[in-house]
Amino acid sequence: MYTNWRRTLVIVAVAALIAGVMFAGGCQLVKDLYPAKQGDEGGGLATAEQLPGVGPDAIADVVSQTSPAVVKISTRINTGASGNPFVDDPFFRQFFGLPQRQREQEGLGSGFIISADGYVLTNEHVVDGADEITVTVTGFDQDLPARVVGADYDLDLALLKLDAGKDLPFLPMGNSDQIRVGNWVIAIGNPYGLDHTVTTGVISAKGRPIAVNDRQYENLLQTDASINPGNSGGPLLNLRGEVVGINTAINAEAQGIGFAIPTSTVARVLEDLKNNVIAVRPWIGVQVRSVDEDAIRSLGLDKAEGALVVGVISGSPADKAGLRQGDVIMEFNANKIGNADDLVAAIKACQVNASVNALVVRKKELRSVSITIAEKPRNIN
Question: Which residues form the PDZ domain (predicted)?
Answer without folding.
Answer: 285-348
